[in-house]
């Protein structure tokens, strides 16, 4: 009888927790806890793929190839005419952006192969452009007739095929979705009614049905909203959508969102914060956040981007480590070609990141930020901790020639142990002493054989008994 009472008690709690309702206002929507999978994951892959992947062009003046149509139309606001000049020369001035759509063929697209690459990179989630600012949808949207990947171009449900493969590989699947569309006539019509617009036909006829459609069809674990800045969330009806997403949708318990829900929202409303691209504050900010980052300088594939624009694996890992130490997640972008190939240089970076995480992942996944984040002004040593195991990790971007690595922040007990994490699950116990001034540790760096040397010049020390 008593057991039954206890059981009933927990069933009641369970029902209450699962029937949480959220109202369409920011205080209510913001009160929803962030599902834990997101913070635990730390590392995700961003994908920008669309009609812009056909011309695949930008210059360093305005390096975003996925903005091709906008650069073509508004050269003064973007690259001063470089895209227009390239377009005139290559395709002719009469060639419209829409004419690129049939050339978006995706004939080499193999979603299982993409998923395998993402898994090998060590990423735990994927965020794919269901629709960018050009308005072309990578699924068959009823609201985007003849301007979607099933009606033209690939003749394929790219969102559906990739979602299935990514989920099958055991990763979380997210969808990027742009609130506005540069040239959607209904949106432009709304905008012409005033500022703020007095008419919201685009929101009721296009945006809302599309958002509900991708949630119902693909059950994403993450909605990465963007293209928010021209209007406030009152125009976009963002709280109406989010209250439905969190209360009524089939993904209400797992779905995560960001903060790009209107000009009044970034770093304030929604889920985790991503106030601008490549956001990396270098300190704690009291809220979960994400650093969305590019390997080169463009989000969509840019054929005009030289090798020296692509960051090294070491540089990318350093950005990831500093991000995670400060409580952020790292979302690294790839821009596949119109054929559906992830450029080989990007594949290589991802595979190498996976190699490093294969050795050092225990300092990243499921970690939390520590008491101190970094302890040199030149950002060379960063800390994480695992509250389950009690380990504190010092991740160093340097291996001083002096043979001594000084950690300033940790306070060690005399029984503290410090190990260098090495390949093949082999860790090396290192000797250390307390800094003469009482705080800090001097690690005596061991002599390593090639087989003991961690990859990519980033070294993780696992510390026990350190405060
Ligand atoms: C491209 O061609 C159009 C149409 O002839 C012209 O208006 C525009 O100035 C050209 N742009 C450049 C940068 O040459
Ligand atoms: C969402 O769920 C709540 C609580 O169950 C319910 O009151 C509301 O009518 C639902 N809204 C929609 C749009 O289905
Ligand atoms: C940590 O790095 C930041 C820059 O990201 C720097 O401003 C700060 O001084 C560093 N902290 C310490 C204790 O050196
Ligand atoms: C390291 O250990 C983990 C957990 O015991 C195991 O799954 C993994 O295969 C090992 N890796 C190597 C390279 O030996």
UniProtKB/TrEMBL annotation:
EC number annotated for this UniProt entry: 3.2.1.51
Domain Glycoside hydrolase family 29 N-terminal: 18-362
Keyword Ribosomal protein in annotation: no
Signal peptide: 1-19
Site (May be important for catalysis): 292
Residue intervals of the Alpha-L-fucosidase C-terminal domain: 373-462
Broad class of enzyme this protein falls into: hydrolase
InterPro entries in the cross-refs: FUC_metazoa-typ, Fucosidase_C, GH, Glyco_hydro_29, Glyco_hydro_29_CS, Glyco_hydro_29_N, Glyco_hydro_b
GO BP: any one term: fucose metabolic process
GO cellular component, one term: lysosome
Catalytic activity, reaction form: a neolactoside IV(2)-alpha-Fuc-nLc4Cer(d18:0) + H2O = a neolactoside nLc4Cer(d18:0) + L-fucose; a neolactoside IV(2)-alpha-Fuc-nLc4Cer(d18:1(4E)) + H2O = a neolactoside nLc4Cer(d18:1(4E)) + L-fucose
Keyword Signal carried by entry: yes
SMART domains with a match to the protein in the record: Alpha_L_fucos (SM00812)
Keywords, alphabetical: Glycosidase, Hydrolase, Signal
Pfam assignment, any one: Alpha_L_fucos
GO molecular function terms listed in the Swiss-Prot or TrEMBL record: alpha-L-fucosidase activity
PANTHER family: ALPHA-L-FUCOSIDASE, ALPHA-L-FUCOSIDASE-RELATED
Function: Alpha-L-fucosidase is responsible for hydrolyzing the alpha-1,6-linked fucose joined to the reducing-end N-acetylglucosamine of the carbohydrate moieties of glycoproteins.
Protein name: alpha-L-fucosidase
Organism of provenance: Heterostelium pallidum (strain ATCC 26659 / Pp 5 / PN500) (Cellular slime mold)
